[in-house]
Amino acid sequence: MREITGDFSKDLESIRAIFYYPDNEDVIFREIYGCGFDMCAVFIDGMVKADQVDEFIVRAAQLNSGEPKPEERVDYMMKNALSIAQVTSEKRLSKISEMILSGMTAVLAEGMTEAILLDTRGFDRRQVSQTTNESVVMGSQEGFVENLRTNLTLMHRYVQSAEMICEMLTVGTKTPLRIALIYMKELTNPAALESARRRVKTVDRPVVHGLGQLEQLIEDNPWAIMPQMLMTERPDRAAAALADGQFVILADSSPYALIAPCDIFALLQASDDAFSRWQYGTYTRIVRWLGILFALMLPGIYVALTMYHAHLIPMSLLSSIAETRVNVPFPVLVEMAILELAFFLINEANMRIPSQIGSSIGIIGALVLGQAAVEASLISPILIIIIALSGLGCYAVPNHSVSISLIIYRLALEIFGGVLGLLGIAMGMFLILCQISSLRSFGMDFISPVAPHSSHNPDIIWRLPIFMQHKRGVFRERSGGGAAK
Amino acid sequence: MKLQINRREAHTLSIVLIATRAFMGIAIDGTEYMNSGWACMLLGYVLALPLTIAVDRYARSGANGASILPKIAFAIFGIIALYESAAVLRMLVNTASYCALSTLSTTALTVFLLLCAYYCVSKNGRGCGNAAKLWLCALVPIMLIVIVAQYGEFNAFWLAPAFAPGARGIIEGGIITAGYFSAAAILHMSAEGEYDKRASCFLTLTTGALSGVVLCALRGMLAPAMLYMNNDRLSQLDALLTNGRSSLALQLPLIYAWFTGLITTLIGYVFISARCAVEVMPEADGRLCAAGAVILAFIIAVAGFAESEWVKRAAKWEYIAIALPLLLVLSAKLMRGGVKGAKVS
């Protein structure tokens, strides 16, 4: 590992080589004479507050008249010459370059065997603003932003406790991404934490692009359809997770937080559930669970019933289904596939299209396309109702990854229903249950505390009154069940 | 893969397994017990009780050591579970045929079901046991819907005469159900971890048997015992799933519950046979054992050895075939003086 030697010109040359200077014109080498010796401030243009560098590094060094001996220079500069609050020294060239890239200023000087690193970070950043995907009626409106420091400040504001620990780590062997592992000292399961540290340290990708990729690299079962960690853009939700004994991972350039260990019930809960009165919270959860059932099973059951078990449909409904399908040239399964595809296309287009013309996609999709398809007898109106209901059910799920998982499961159930009727639906559902039941999140069973049963607050399916929820750190004991690998 | 199941997972899986299998054996295949199936189940519970208490008392950790006897016992249990897998498989295929899937090839249906069972078993005890627990949670509202929807159709008088098959019939039914209930003892014997009183074999048997009794009584109250009707499976399924009085649409949750119960039972039996194979050959890979169990179950099922008549004949000996090796294993342990009381967690 290469280190600072104390030979000013040689050290400067090493730093220049690391940054491919002068090809790379973004890196500024500001040579200064002060304190009786030559020094150089190295920083990246635009990543630092220029006035801080001018005033508290360049000017402060130039005006200082002390002439310390070479071995005392680091200490002298840090204490007497440089007027920046957060300052540290570092020998390793790799670490120095990493810090310069993160917006700090490094000062190298003749005779100094360490570089002084000064926190002058001042790049443009987005202000803390409203959440976009997890809006709530009651409760905080703040969301995470792309800046790690700002997000950490938010966490400190929401959890004003000395127990909250923040460990800084990096992932990515070529382009390190700074991440923060945050947990409550006494509430988080040590085995789960150790597992998280180990998984982060063993990521051997050259570049990790944000939390979305990190999640895939450190989750227990990357082949599973369901996500095993909760991603939120709400600092209050991350703070609540800390109190429950979960840990939170924040990363630079990611306006989200990853929460783990996590169970399926947490993935299906919305922040609003906790803020509203318990009766409303319980009611909305029941509606959401019904939505999930619709999203998952309704099209599959429709396919199964119409293809194999028409005798189970009440006669009046059966005759109206038959009337609407009389001119449709496709079998139900094909009809369903066409409509599902159209639905996904509209959905995908709506997400990618500029917001100014986004509403027209809804109109084209829902009214024009739907109406035309029905009039052309390509699809039956009842199927539009079925797909619309299942689509609405998907949107009722507060977590985007879970809602995509539900769509994939739904497609599988449609095929099962089309091939094996109700038996296929029962089989498919059991396969889904089995797959979800076998998952773990950092050593914790994914469907606990239901299976295996463990003590918990009455906040799983029913959201009972707050005064009945007196357990803290419920995830601590639950995540101790299985060996977190 | 190491095939394993802990006590809680074994507990939930066994509850679904024994309740469904006993219901299938008594209410569908055992027409001669008329509407006294619930009484047969109660007797079966009493007969199976000593086995489960013994399994609880003598934790598995001390039961199979280096001795050859436990291996022989597990080999016998494995064969029984294999045969039961084929029997449940046939019932599933029969039900599917009844429910308008008669156009689908029986072999194809069998293959689909066994692939499903293999996938679930390869998810290990955690996947199967926890899925069974979730299914139990879902079953309660489904059964409530079934009961509420058909409330007017239940007639308690159809349970009378309470002991219509006579003492001999009820004893025979009791022995048969005791055989089905003993599957819980096998699964608990092969379960890992310390004894857990909240997931004891006794509790499993009690919950499973009581569920079976309730299901049998509900079934008995739906249709009167008919002495001269066709006693084949399809007629019985017809009486169970479309009893002729309530709206057919109301049968949807019942059919779904019946299918899922049978699928869980099939998976449970395949798991037991694979687990027993692992007990006999500890070095064997769990997935390989599961694949072997699935293939053998397929052969038994398509060869016609798991048809109703065969299954009914075999069922009379199942209790003895399980109880005897189990008692031998425990007696051998007693003679060696190595029995330790199980640790209570």
Please explain how this structure is put together.
- The complex is a heterodimer of chains A (485) and B (345).
- Chain A has 485 residues and is of the alpha+beta class.
- Helices cover 48% and strands 13% of the residues of chain A.
- Chain A has 17 helices and twelve strands.
- Chain A has helices at 8-18, 50-63, 73-81, 93-101, 148-158, 190-201, 210-218, 235-243, 264-267, 271-275, 278-307, 315-325, 332-352, 355-375, 381-395, 400-437, 474-478; strands at 27-34, 37-44, 87-90, 105-109, 115-118, 164-171, 177-184, 230-232, 247-251, 257-260, 440-441, 444-445.
- Chain A has a five-stranded antiparallel beta sheet with strand order 1-2-4-5-3, sandwiched between helices.
- In chain A, a hairpin with a 2-residue loop joins β1 (27-34) and β2 (37-44).
- With 345 residues, chain B is an all-alpha fold.
- Chain B has helices at residues 7-28, 37-57, 60-63, 68-101, 106-122, 124-149, 166-181, 183-189, 201-222, 233-241, 251-280, 286-302, 308-336.
- In chain B, α1 (7-28) packs across α6 (124-149), α4 (68-101) packs across α5 and α6 (124-149) runs antiparallel to α11 (251-280).
- Chain B is globular, with a radius of gyration of 19 Å.
Q: Strand sequence of the main sheet of chain A, in spatial order?
A: 1-2-4-5-3
What portion of residues of chain A belong to β-strands? Answer: 5-15%
Which percent bin holds the helix content of chain B?
A: over 70%
Mean pLDDT of chain B: 87
Oligomer: heterodimer
Which class of secondary structure composition applies to the elements of chain B?
A: mainly alpha
- Biggest sheet record of chain B: none
**Global morphology of chain A:** elongated
Number of helices of chain A: 17
Distance between the termini of chain A: 30 Å
Q: Please outline the major beta sheet of chain A.
A: 5 strands, antiparallel
